[in-house]
Design brief:
Length: 161
Amino acid sequence: MLEGKGIWHEVTEHRAVYHMAELSQMDVPYPEADAKNLFVRDDKKRNYYLITVKGDRRVDLKEFRQRNHTRPLSFASEDELMDIMGLMPGAVTPFGVLNDRELKIKVFIARDFMDTPGVIGVHPNDNTATVWLKTEDLIRLIEEHGNQVELTEIDGGWGEE
């Protein structure tokens, strides 16, 4: 798909990773651009959000909720992840949004992915590789699909969840 659209990208194949700490131990070309993705929903199960931050950042869901005026948030279930994004736990990625036929998911991407070099590394719907591409190209793909994307400041501190 990326080649067909003329989008620059690189692919790094690696063993399956389930946590950012595992990926940080691997030799990847853009370690500062690794993305961590959280698939969450509100307490009424009406609104779904994909939150994408740098791999070494934490996300404070209460702070995120206040900043973005959402209802209380919790992680979406494995069934919701499969039904909406067609993904298994451990493989959550913005590319999964392209499987969201009902356009239920609003995507929040940390603004610091736009900083030089403007690259983001995400799974290709499978956690045994990382696709590196320009952040602006990823945003354009998701918006062309019909989902909303918002660049945002996400302050949650450093370290694993």
